[in-house]
Amino acid sequence: MRSLNALPVHELNQLLQNGECSSVDIVSDVISAIERVDDRIGAYLDYDGEHALKEARASDERRSNGCQLPLLGIPVGLKDVLNVRGMACGCASRILEGYTSPYDAYVVTRLREAGAVILGRLNMDEFAMGSTNENSAYKPTRNPWNQDYVPGGSSGGSAAAVSACEAVAALGSDTGGSIRQPASFCGCVGLKPTYGRVSRRGLTAFASSLDQVGPVVRDVRDAALLLEVIAGHDRFDSTSLNIPLSSYRDTLTGDISGMKLGIPKEYFIDGMDPDVKKTVQDAIDKCAELGAELVDVELPHTEYAVAVYYIIATAEASANLARFDGVRYGARVDGRDPLDMYGKTRAGYLGDEVKRRIILGTYVLSSGYYDEYYIRAQKARTLIRNDFENAFGTCDALIAPVTPTTSFRFGEKGDDPLQMYLGDIFTVPVNLAGICGISVPCGMSGSGLPIGLQIIGPAFKEERILRAAHAYEQATDWHNQKPEIARTAGMS
Amino acid sequence: MKYKVSIGLETHVQLKTRSKIWCGCPNRFGQPANTDICPVCLGYPGALPSLNREAVRLTVVTGLMLGSTINRRSKFDRKSYFYPDMPKNYQISQYDEPFCTGGHLNINVNGGSKRVEITRIHLEEDVGKSIHFEQSSGVDFNRAGTPLMEIVSEPELESPDEAFAYLTALKQVLLYGDISEGNLEEGNIRCDINCSLRPMDSDVLGSKIEIKNMNTFRGVHRSLVYEIKRQIGILDNGGVIQQETRRWDDDSGLTSIMRTKEHAHDYRYFPEPDLMPIVLTSEEIDAMRSAIPELPADRRNRFAVEYGLPEYDAGILTSDRDLADFYEAAAKISGNYKAVSNWIMTDMLHYLSEEGIGIDKIKITPEALAELVDLVVQNTINMPAAKKIFRILLESGGKPTAIMEDKGLAQISDSDSIDVFVEEALSSHPSSVADYRSGKKAALQFLVGQVMRLSKGKANPRAAMESLKRRLDSGDPGN
Amino acid sequence: METGTRQNTEHIDVSYVAHLARLHLADSEIQVFQKQLDHILQHVHMLTHLDVDHVEPTAHAMPVENAYREDDIRPCLSHDEVMDNAPNGRGGLFIVPKIIE
């Protein structure tokens, strides 16, 4: 039997239910995996093993008293953007040094209600800005498949932890691909729910109109399970919608015969990594084999998406991050007057990528440029939304790559942020349109790096993309592949 | 040279809600610093605003009372600027789609009436409060997130008096609508002034000077008097007024420069992504409209017509909604509109100002006042006794009849009892009797006074006078 | 092209914008950012090729309206918990360098 830390949550639930293992066993395995590999991976910023074990014991106690909850005694790692009462929430930024959160994010409350054990804080790009985890102020996270390679980002810690079997499940956040891209780079399953499906309360905002919390897990069934727990209407998040939830696990029938899958031609571009192109094409063929009907669709404004995204996201971020000023919490550099203090504190404690985006976002909103950049981007956003709406007129879901390339080496993209941004081309349109998308492993590159398949669905049709992803996953074995380091982590 | 003055006011009104605008912290004044706060009003990471429905209702009701157009669709925007009392370093406000557009307010100046146009009314959040020390400043965020309504007037006010009258009339409307506590000491109503001067024969508005953060109506008046004089001084000497923002120092009575146009803020407004647009249906607006009270000006006119009161009295009685309610209740019970008005206008208002209290703290009920008026009309008590009873009613409450009986203040009107006092007065003052008979009719008043004194004020003065006249004129000397 | 849209003027005044954003940048940082941001803006310039004259802007991902909260009081944070987070808290206040308007 594999070690418990290498199993998906739904299998652990089965073992727990059958009395074949305890929550303490699971948490112990996960902690010893962290101890064995995390100095090489750097997925965790912090974890409290002792506290987790205490919670695990309490969960076992509850279970022996007949308590049944969907995540009872299951340890979950959280991206460092989520507030947990009594814990730091640092967004991998030095500017939040010293901040202890006095409240639980909505999704944390839901996890607790479901019986989950909160294990620790996972590394990320500072304030979720980045695609590599190189922008963490503390340490880079390394790709478990090859530690010279980036794990992706910004939820790189979440994906690496699950991939290296240092976590059985994690939550991340996705503003422009920050769940799907690292899941793809690390060979896990990552789901970005529809905007408004999951409350953002307690999720430190990067771009408020794009951010969504979602699961990073071992397989599609776990994604469905986690989504059932965290989704729902929050009356204190105005952008969370009151739309009935599906029982997502029940929709995982394995049957996609007759499902119309659209292939957007703009997602198969020149200059794409040939391995990615071929692997995704094979996956598409596999779906056809499973009975899905393939249709060609067009998303003609795709090429504009990165430009639109980097205007809207940075504009919102420039305001969202203005609160980090050294007055009420976090780090401070003293100054002659408040102006001096702000300038020194923010320049001294924010990283380069964050500063760059704040400047860009401030610029596009500033007097004289607002119409030219911001309003124009909002209008182009409408065109991108319309593209998807039209496409979903002829198909049930879209099937496409997650990224144009597999993971790359640290520092490979040099100091040109634009080259990095352009790698987001297949993920940002989904956030701009507010719809849902999932990344599932669909193969390996010649150099042994995972490749992900993206399935994109209309708003609030998570059950549809989960069903398609699950059917594909069950027909293949990619999700069971583990990196070498997972053996060290205790996978026998 | 002669100049035309144009003054516009941006009035910030704290709304009377239970909780703050975006969170459930209490909206109240006077708590220990930094105790009425939560992640939302402190701008913590991950905190989200959630719009208080009542704040929207109060804003729309204000718009309805001022005759504004209520916009079917409104939205919130972020207004960015860094300041220590601003938790998020952006203020959630409304930029181009406020709740209300247009409207007007009628003001009374120098005995005349003037209609002042309202530009717009929008809703935003208040900020924290800074306290300044020798070397540093401290911030209290209790006030942060208080719902703040901004009412912007057109620059149609032409003098400090008009600005004062505008604020007075606006406050009256806000109190009538129960929109705000309206307590200036607690900062419930604050305003920014803009003021420009131009030669009488020019149509082009002069450069705008803004005076920020005024918190008393008197301060507004004084600062404008100063500012207009200052600007005239510059213009008369051939100088040019530069657009700038100034601050008022109440102690020195001067305005001084805060920032010039070059240093104006770039607020970087953009739509607030955390809040959804508000779309009001006509049903919702109608429901709010049906709940608005009669406005002070309308009520004043109605009081004059319906109760036959002089304009002046009607104006005083309707200056305060509670006072007007009190009058109307008493007048309706009594039916003697003028008498009820007289009691309120004189003794009651005098008492209130003497005690420095509001009508809400008074003990007398409208029923009691009506009963008192009735006792006087029925000749059951005379005026001095009525005044005594009224004082007791003001201080302790109760029923006039019971007080009258308790204090033995009933008027003596039966002729037998009166005659006893009359005879004693006549016999004690023969010289006055002689005076009267020799044609000095004024002696009669003296004798009435004597009867009142002998009866300890209880005699019905008219009955006493009639009895005296009857005896004096008939030649019966009473001795 | 809309009025007010300038062609090939994609050049950020980095020190001015950094001041707006309250970031005291070193000159070397300004230079690096200048180059990088100008490059990004060149890419963003492609948006001017789009005809968006009759397109409504999208501000929210989901077109919903009227999300309200009822006017009810909810618990506040404890004063101590809040002040424990303060970089400089004294006498129940958040202390900052003296504010000069």
Give me the CATH fold name of chain A.
Answer: Amidase signature (AS) enzymes
What is the N-to-C order of secondary-structure elements of chain A (H for helix, E for strand)?
Answer: HHEHEHEHEHEEHEHEHHHHEHHEEHH
Terminus-to-terminus distance of chain C: 42 Å
Shape of chain A: globular
CATH architecture classification of the domain at 7-47 in chain C: Orthogonal Bundle
Low-confidence stretches of chain C: 1-8
Beta content of chain C comes to 5-15%
Mean pLDDT of chain A: 96
The 3D shape of chain C can be described as: flat
CATH fold-level assignment of the domain at 7-47 in chain C: Histone, subunit A
Strand order of the largest sheet of chain A: 1-3-2-4-6-5-10-11-9-7-8
**How many β strands of chain A by DSSP?**
11
What would CATH call the class of chain A? Answer: Alpha Beta
Q: Name the average pLDDT of chain C.
A: 89
Largest sheet of chain C: 2 strands, antiparallel
- Most strands sheet of chain A: 11 strands, mixed
Provide the descriptors you would attach to this structure in a database record.
heterotrimer, B: alpha+beta, 40% helix, C: 101 residues, alpha+beta, Histone, subunit A, flat
